[in-house]
């Protein structure tokens, strides 16, 4: 048995969730290999080889992998799939887009978004927006699995020295073409890995009012999240959405402001260690998952919150 | 141009799902069912494309038990031209669904296949990508904007880092995000008219697709409950609790 992990990266470095996927993958089997498909991505291969859990790095470098198009990735992955019992990657938009395309060609019924490895063929995964946990056993010979990154600790980044094997690219797929990427650059911690997240919902009323959230995020060195309602209403961009169809976050502290707590939103944050809810509707469902609930008008509470934080001088960066 | 739209019947998104006591699944008896929300966006987008004159026919398809037909009727009521119901009982995994859809695509020869990016029951997010693989078609997943060109689509995709735009040649698969559009409601006259639109029934077994589950569901359980929290009286109490009790700031 060996596991092949498909790395997510940006041609310069591994994306942080790849480290979480590594620790999950090595729970399936210790013979973990990592496949890097990129363009001018030597640095990525080198960092992958330094992860102690990784036994071998397969590096395929070609311009067709510049933009990580799933259709181009697929043929290369299928070429290597033969000798592996498991093909795995992160269950974020990268892995969700890619893995089913591989699974279908291997005639494997994919197990999506696992949160626990019970054994090499049995996994725990949330269903119905996390309102139920299913224990599932894959009976396919070859298993295709996506891993919910926030459910696993990141693997250490250094200390290993796996061999790097170069390999030839697969066929290019002619019918899909990358056009552009609009990445929202920010100095803040990434939403998926931040220690503190503060999120705004429909109660924020407009994008201007998100400044109240931003000020607190600056103070706490927190990432900024949002409910789907706030994103739909155009208060903030989609990359901030937390929930069933957005991002799943598990910070030490999650502060929900003006968020009622629809099932779909709770799915993305209810595993957070400490949850704070600030909402003027005392009956809002968000209070049912909150460790600390404050029934208050957010437009009064947020400036006070900032003021109180300013009085403390122990904020950890 | 012809568009095939796949819709799934799921527990309504507003229902608080309950786990069965015997651990075999979730309670579905007497529970409100409706179309998987992003599938409504897929239907809406197809109808808009037809209204713009760029598509001639929309075929709505569902796969499932007898009652799954309701989702096709709903699609017909908002503008699909005819429906297909592939009858099969029990759980059908995305791999089997995509094999059934492949057979229907072979027969119907659509130029585009639309569906929601994810079903809110099993949360798998697989079917569109799997169908694209089986057909060797391009896939535009998590679409929040679609621009139909002569022989291609320009699709804006919602990805973790923000937005990505790709161009896919037709024929293509698109999986739709909730932000793609605002699905319309069916008017009563259109609901009545939809009853007269053709709806073909096919047995999954007649398509020669093996729908047997490959994944064994060993048990379904409630997620661990959070311990009950408290309400704080004011902001300063909140900050003190966070600092001294929870020690997170």
What would you say this structure looks like, in words?
The complex is a heterodimer of chains A (317) and B (249). The radius of gyration of chain A is 21 Å and the shape is elongated. Chain A has helices at residues 16-28, 42-49, 70-81, 93-105, 210-220, 228-232, 263-269, 298-311; strands at residues 3-6, 32-38, 54-61, 86-90, 111-114, 116-117, 122-127, 132-138, 143-147, 163-166, 176-183, 196-200, 223-226, 253-257, 274-279, 292-295. In chain A, strands 5-9-4-1-2-3-10 form a seven-stranded parallel β-sheet, with helices on both faces. In chain A, strands 13-12-14-15-16 form a five-stranded parallel β-sheet. In chain A, 26% of the residues lie in helices and 26% in strands. Chain A is an alpha/beta fold and 317 residues long. By secondary structure, chain B is of the alpha/beta class. Chain B has a single domain, classed as Rossmann fold, CATH 3.40.50. Chain B has six helices and 13 strands. Chain B has helices at 37-51, 69-77, 94-108, 127-135, 188-194, 235-245; strands spanning 2-6, 9-11, 33-35, 57-64, 82-87, 112-116, 139-148, 152-159, 162-169, 172-176, 199-203, 215-221, 230-232. In chain B, a hairpin with a 2-residue loop joins β8 (152-159) and β9 (162-169). The chains are: A alpha/beta (317), B alpha/beta (249). Chains A and B meet through α3, α4, β5, β7 and β8 of A and α3, α4, β7, β8 and β9 of B.
Q: Which descriptors would you attach to this protein?
A:
heterodimer; A: 317 residues; alpha/beta; Rossmann fold; 2 domains; seven-stranded parallel sheet; five-stranded parallel sheet; 26% helix; 26% strand; elongated; B: 249 residues; nine-stranded mixed sheet; two-stranded antiparallel ribbon; 13 strands; 27% helix; globular
What would a concise description of this structure say?
Chain A is of the alpha/beta class and about 325 residues long.
Rg from Cα of chain A: 21 Å
Say what oligomer this is.
Answer: heterodimer
CATH class of chain B: Alpha Beta
Using the alpha-carbon principal axes, give the shape of chain B: globular
Helix content of chain B: 25-40%
Q: How many domains, in number, for the residues of chain B?
A: 1
Largest sheet: spatial strand order of chain A: 5-9-4-1-2-3-10
Order of helices and strands of chain B: EEEHEHEHEHEEEEHEEEH
**Gross geometry of chain A:** elongated
């Amino acid at each position: 048995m060996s596991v092949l992990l498909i790395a997510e990266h940006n041609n310069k470095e591994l994306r942080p969730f790849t480290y979480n996927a590594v620790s999950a993958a090595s729970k399936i089997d210790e013979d973990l290999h990592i496949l890097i498909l990129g363009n001018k991505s030597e640095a990525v291969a080198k960092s992958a080889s330094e992860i102690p859990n990784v036994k071998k790095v397969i590096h395929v470098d070609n311009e067709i992998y510049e933009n990580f198009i799933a259709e181009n990735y697929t043929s290369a992955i299928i070429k290597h799939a033969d000798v592996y019992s498991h093909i795995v990657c992160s269950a974020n938009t990268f892995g969700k887009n890619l893995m089913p395309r591989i699974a279908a060609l291997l005639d494997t019924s994919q197990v999506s978004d696992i949160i626990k490895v019970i054994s090499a063929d049995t996994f725990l995964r949330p269903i119905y927006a996390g309102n139920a946990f299913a224990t599932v056993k894959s009976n396919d010979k070859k298993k295709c699995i996506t891993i919910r990154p926030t459910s696993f600790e990141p693997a250490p980044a250094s200390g290993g020295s796996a061999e790097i094997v170069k390999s030839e690219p697969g066929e290019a797929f002619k019918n899909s073409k990358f056009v552009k990427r609009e990445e929202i650059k920010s100095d803040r911690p990434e939403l998926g890995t931040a220690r503190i997240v503060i999120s705004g919902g429909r109660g924020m009323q407009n994008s201007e009012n998100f400044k109240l959230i931003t000020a607190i995020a600056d103070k706490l060195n927190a990432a900024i999240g949002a409910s789907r309602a706030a994103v739909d209403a155009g208060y903030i961009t989609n990359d901030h959405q937390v929930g069933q169809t957005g991002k799943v976050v598990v910070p030490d502290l999650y502060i929900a402001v003006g968020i009622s707590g629809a099932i779909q939103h709770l799915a993305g944050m209810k595993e957070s260690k400490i949850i704070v809810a600030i909402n003027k509707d005392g009956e809002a469902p968000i209070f049912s998952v909150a460790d600390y609930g404050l029934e208050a008008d957010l437009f009064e509470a947020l400036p006070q919150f900032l003021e109180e934080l300013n009085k403390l001088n122990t904020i950890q960066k | 141009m012809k568009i095939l739209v796949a819709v799934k019947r799921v527990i309504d998104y507003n229902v608080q799902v309950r786990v069965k006591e015997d651990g075999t699944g979730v309670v579905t008896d007497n529970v409100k069912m409706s179309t998987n929300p992003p599938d409504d966006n897929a239907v809406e987008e197809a109808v808009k494309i037809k209204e713009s004159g760029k598509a001639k026919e929309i075929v709505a398809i569902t796969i499932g038990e007898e009652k799954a037909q309701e989702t096709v009727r709903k699609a017909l009521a908002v503008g699909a031209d005819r429906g297909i119901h592939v009858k099969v009982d029990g759980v059908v995994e995305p791999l089997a669904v995509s094999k059934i859809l492949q057979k229907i695509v072979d027969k119907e020869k659509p130029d585009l296949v639309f569906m929601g990016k994810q079903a809110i029951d099993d949360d798998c997010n697989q079917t569109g990508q799997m169908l694209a693989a089986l057909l060797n078609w391009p896939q535009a997943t998590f679409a929040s904007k679609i621009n139909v060109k002569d022989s291609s689509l320009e699709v804006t995709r919602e990805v973790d880092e923000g937005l990505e735009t790709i161009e896919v040649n037709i024929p293509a698969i698109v999986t739709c995000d909730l932000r793609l559009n605002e699905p319309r409601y069916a008017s009563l006259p259109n609901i009545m008219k939809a009853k007269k639109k053709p709806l073909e029934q096919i047995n999954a077994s007649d398509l020669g697709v093996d729908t047997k589950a490959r994944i064994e569901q060993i048990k379904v359980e409630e997620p661990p409950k959070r311990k009950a929290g408290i309400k704080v009286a004011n902001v300063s109490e909140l900050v003190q609790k966070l600092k001294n009790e929870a020690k997170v700031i």
